[in-house]
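Incident log, support desk, overnight shift.

02:14 A customer reports that sequence design results differ from what the structure should imply. Their input is reproduced verbatim below. On-call engineer (initials T.W.) acknowledged and began investigating.
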């Protein structure tokens, strides 16, 4: 059945919608802008189109004020993001990516919370070289940002056997299936060949989707992807090794605006069960519902989660069935979600081993005596592992020989790299978004203060004998939620310069949202604010209750009172 996309009346549509429509399937004037050496930046419409090509126009926020005072324009630079479904790279692809960081970027690779790499600090004149080189490494940046299906994430464990192999296969299949069909990407970045004849976008149409659309895979035994924070979670169900099919859950998303209750974080809820061979069609039907009913006038209200809340699950299911021209079973019962610990050495089940290596904030760089980038490059050159990027910004090196364990650990240590066993759980698992100086939306620091905030919190944990607690800490520079702060145990969310909102009470399994306990907490007071809560937790936890469960049980009002009794009122 061919159901044509409904569009909002032209005068109601956002500027981004209008720019997409006249872009000739994502071409706009990007090629002209690239060819003009006098321009350091693109105009607004092209900058928006560029996102779907995987390119973000940014500026160096550290130097912006000084440059303004000197009457100079901002120092424009670009971020690019790769599409790596399931986060898997061959050793040679990893080495190519490492090489591009020096040739085109700022000498760093940044693992994202969706299992891929970003490059920062690319000058406009280097963009074409970088994207063509990425294509040469059998990778792409296409459809990693903007209003399309983004990089599909999947549990990263390389355990041998059908469970993980099926999920990796599905991630690759869906990633390819939902790529835009326009030739614009190849034309602009790869071969310059213009398409002859009429072009079509069979799924997306000329205006693509109303907003980004995120898909994640998980199983109840492995929700390391935080799947329920996605627009669509594919929860694969197995009976032993036998793949039964999947529950699709819809309507997750974390972006919100402080003090604007009409925007909110939401977890996806199960919609239907679908058998293995029909999962792709069911996903496509969900995408079509969002394509045709998602809000195209207000981008803050355009994610699928708003449609799910406002129309209800029954309506969504009926529409999905109408587009798919079939009915679906109700979602099957699921056991409680788990998230496996992947740090350190693990037997894969096929004679090989994998090593889970924590990468602070996902930033692979050589800094001072810590030569993380050199260490990882050398490890990959010498041992040729498959490299798997995780949704917690870490790396699993898989296919290793356990006989090389000592050599590999010595190599990492010689370069100043901390191994999983050298770190407390909160240090291993903490994630933070890039924030300043690259992110144009950041209200506070995140990645650059992760280390010091962690050290301070760890001291407080130690004081109460809690340093081995498996706590997750997630820091973002604004409420958009890129490091998923609303599903961790402790979320610090940039509120205004130097201040964070404190969220507590999420869980490690990614099935419960946290609540805002303090709205504006000064950076310097963060660990002090947590002190009375750690004290109380150490005494009042029930059995082996986790920190997140304890916070959720006692509630945000109780926790806020603990803090205010302890801190001087001026701090809050
Ligand atoms: Fe994000 C926008 C970085 C995962 C929600 N995100 C941005 C931008 C592109 C800023 C911008 O629009 O100008 C950031 C670029 C910063 C920089 O300098 O690199 C940015 N987001 C990231 C990354 C790199 C954070 C990280 O530490 O790894 C993650 C890249 C993932 C990827 O590879 O595709 C990243 N972003 C997320 C996630 C988590 C996830 O997907 O698992 C979320 C919350 C889930 C969700 O989508 O709701 C997330 N990012 C947002 C939002 C809020 C969207 C909303 O519905 O309101 C924005 C702002 C926007 O889209 O307008 C945003
Ligand atoms: Fe930027 Fe905010 Fe995302 Fe951090 S959470 S990368 S500050 S948009």
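02:41 Re-run completed on a clean worker. Output:
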């Amino acid at each position: 059945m061919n159901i044509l996309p409904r569009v909002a009346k032209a005068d109601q549509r956002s500027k981004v919608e209008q720019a997409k429509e006249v872009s000739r399937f994502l071409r706009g004037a990007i090629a002209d802008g690239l060819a003009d050496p006098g321009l350091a930046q693109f105009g607004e419409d092209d900058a928006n189109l560029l996102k779907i090509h995987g390119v973000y126009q940014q500026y160096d926020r550290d130097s912006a004020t000084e440059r303004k005072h000197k009457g100079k324009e901002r120092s424009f630079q670009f971020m690019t993001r790769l599409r790596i479904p399931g986060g898997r790279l061959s050793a040679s692809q990893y080495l190519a990516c490492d090489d591009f960081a020096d040739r085109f970027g700022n000498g760093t690779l940044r693992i994202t919370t969706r299992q891929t790499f970003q490059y920062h600090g690319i000058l406009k004149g280097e963009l074409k070289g970088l994207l063509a080189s990425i294509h040469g490494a059998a990778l792409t940046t296409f459809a990693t940002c903007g209003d399309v299906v983004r990089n599909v994430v999947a549990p990263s464990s390389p355990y041998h056997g059908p469970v993980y192999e099926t999920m990796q296969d599905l991630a690759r299949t869906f990633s390819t299936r939902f790529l835009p069909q326009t030739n614009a990407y190849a034309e602009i970045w790869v071969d310059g060949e213009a398409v002859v004849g009429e072009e079509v976008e069979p799924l997306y149409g000329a205006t693509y989707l109303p907003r980004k659309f995120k898909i994640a895979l998980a199983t109840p035994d492995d929700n390391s992807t935080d799947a329920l924070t996605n627009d669509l979670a594919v929860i694969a169900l197995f009976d032993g090794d036998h793949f039964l099919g999947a529950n699709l859950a819809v309507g997750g998303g974390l972006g919100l605006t402080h003090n604007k209750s009409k925007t909110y974080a939401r977890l996806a809820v199960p919609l239907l069960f679908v058998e293995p061979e029909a999962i792709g069609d069911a996903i496509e039907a969900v995408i079509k519902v969002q394509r045709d009913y998602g809000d195209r006038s207000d981008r803050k209200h355009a994610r699928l989660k708003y449609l799910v809340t406002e129309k209800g699950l029954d309506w969504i299911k009926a529409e999905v069935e109408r587009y798919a021209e079939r009915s679906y079973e109700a979602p099957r019962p699921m056991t409680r979600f788990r998230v496996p610990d992947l740090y350190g050495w693990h037997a894969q089940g096929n004679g090989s081993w994998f090593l889970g290596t924590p990468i602070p904030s996902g930033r692979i760089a050589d800094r001072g005596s810590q030569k993380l980038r050199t260490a990882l490059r050398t490890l990959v050159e010498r041992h040729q592992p498959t490299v798997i990027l995780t949704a917690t910004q870490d790396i699993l090196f898989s296919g290793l020989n356990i006989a090389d364990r000592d050599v590999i650990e010595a190599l990492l240590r010689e370069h100043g790299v901390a191994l999983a066993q050298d770190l407390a759980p909160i240090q291993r698992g903490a994630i933070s978004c890039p924030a300043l100086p690259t992110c144009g939306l950041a209200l506070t620091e995140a990645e650059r203060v992760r280390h010091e905030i962690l050290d301070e919190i760890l001291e407080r944990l130690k004081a109460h004998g809690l340093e081995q607690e498996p706590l997750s800490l997630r820091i973002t520079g604004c409420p958009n939620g890129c490091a998923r702060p609303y599903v961790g145990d402790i979320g610090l969310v940039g509120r205004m310069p130097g201040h964070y909102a404190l969220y507590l009470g999420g869980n490690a399994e990614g099935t419960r949202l946290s609540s805002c306990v303090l709205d504006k907490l000064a950076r310097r007071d963060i660990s002090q604010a947590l002190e009375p809560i750690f004290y109380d937790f150490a005494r009042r936890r029930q059995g082996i209750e986790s920190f997140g469960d304890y916070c959720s049980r006692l509630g945000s009002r109780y926790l806020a009172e603990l803090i205010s009794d302890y801190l001087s009122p001026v701090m809050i």
